[in-house]
Amino acid sequence: MKIGLLTSGGDCPGLNAVIRGAVLEGIIEHGDEFVGFRDGWRGVVERDYFPITRHDVRGLSKTGGTILGSSRTNPFEGEFGGPDNIQWLMDREGIDVIVAIGGEGTLTAARRLYDEGGIKVLGVPKTIDNDLAATDYSFGFDTAVQIATEAIDRLRTTADSHGRCMVLEVMGRHVGWIALHSGMAGGAHAILIPEQPQSIDQIVEWVLQVRERGRAPLVVVAEGFTLPEMTEAHSTKGLDAFNRPRLGGIADVLAPLIEERTGIESRATVLGHIQRGGEPTAYDRVLATRLGMAVVKAAHREEWGQMVTLRGTDIKTVSIHEATGSLNTVPQERYDEAKVLFG
C-alpha cells in the first residue's frame, strides 16, 4: 500500500511522532510505501510531495514541529483543488489513501473530500485545544498545558514582587481546556473560559478577595472567553483559510478593566504560539506514536472516512463525521470543581 501523509493547520507538538509511528508501522509490519505532502493540503492541490523512508523518521518522536510543513490551505480551492483533481493525482502516483493529521478544519475538509468525491482518507486528530468531541484527549494538549503552567509559575513570582494582578491569556479557540488544566495546576485565582461567561463585576470580586488575603491576583483566560455583553469572541486578526476568526487579545481587554475597577496595577500576557512550539511531553510522544501506528492499521482494514481516536486508554476508530460534528467543551461539573479554588 502507498500512503500519503500530510499535516495541516496549526503546528503542534507530537506531529513528528505521528509520522514516525505511521512510517515504522507501515514499513515494518506491512511493507508499505509513504509520501509526504508539503505544507498540508497545499502539497496535495499543488502536487508537491516527496518519498518518506525509514531513515527519514529516525529519532523523530522527540522533535517539535513537523518535517512535512503545515498550512491552512483549503483543498477545495485553487486550480488543482477539489476531489476530481485530487483523485487524478492519487491514481497517477498510485497513492491508495491520504492520511490527514490535523484539527477541526483539516478533518472537516477530509470529510468533505470523502463525502463528495469518495476520496480514500483517514484522519488523525491534532489540536492543542482538545476541542474534538470524538477523542478523549488529543496529542499536543498535554504539552500546551505544561507550557502554560510554567508561564503561570513564572508570572506568579513577578506578580508577588510588584503586587500586581497578572492576566495570562492561553489558546483554546472556543473551548477552555488549556485554561482549565493550566489554571488548576498553577493555582490561578480565577479561570475564565468560553463555556462560562463571567461579568467584570464577578472577576473584580475574585481579584479583590485575593488582594484582601495579601496575595497578588493571577487570572488565566482562554482566548475565546467573552464577557456577557460581548456578542462574539475578541478578534482583530481577520479570518483564516477556513473563514474562521483568528482569536486573541481578550487579556488586553480585561487587564485595564480590572485595574480601573480595583486600583490594582494589572498586566496582560498573551502566551500565543509559544504553546505550540518545542518538544512534546512524554505523554504526547506516546499518544502520537500510538495514533500514527493505529491509522496505518486502519488503512489496511480499509476504514475510509474514519479517524483514529483515544477512548480511555484504548485507540479506536470513529467516523470523521462524529469527530467534526460538535466541540468537546468543558462540562459544567469540571468548571464547578475549579471554581471552588477561585478568589
Automatic annotation (TrEMBL):
PROSITE patterns documented for this protein: PHOSPHOFRUCTOKINASE (PS00433)
Cell location: Cytoplasm
First-tier enzyme category under EC: transferase
Transmembrane segments: none
Entry annotated with the keyword NADP: no
InterPro entries, per database record: ATP_PFK (IPR022953), ATP_PFK_prok-type (IPR012003), Phosphofructokinase_CS (IPR015912), Phosphofructokinase_dom (IPR000023), Phosphofructokinase_III (IPR012829), PKF_sf (IPR035966)
Domain called Phosphofructokinase: residue spans: 2-298
Sites where the protein binds substrate: 127-129, 164, 171-173, 223, 267, 273-276
Catalytic activity of the protein: beta-D-fructose 6-phosphate + ATP = beta-D-fructose 1,6-bisphosphate + ADP + H(+)
Pathway(s) annotated for this protein in UniProt: Carbohydrate degradation; glycolysis; D-glyceraldehyde 3-phosphate and glycerone phosphate from D-glucose: step 3/4
E.C. numbers: 2.7.1.11
Binding, ATP: 10, 72-73, 103-106
SUPFAM superfamilies: Phosphofructokinase (SSF53784)
Summary of the function given for this chain in its UniProt record: Catalyzes the phosphorylation of D-fructose 6-phosphate to fructose 1,6-bisphosphate by ATP, the first committing step of glycolysis.
Assembly and oligomerization: Homodimer or homotetramer.
Name the record gives this protein: ATP-dependent 6-phosphofructokinase
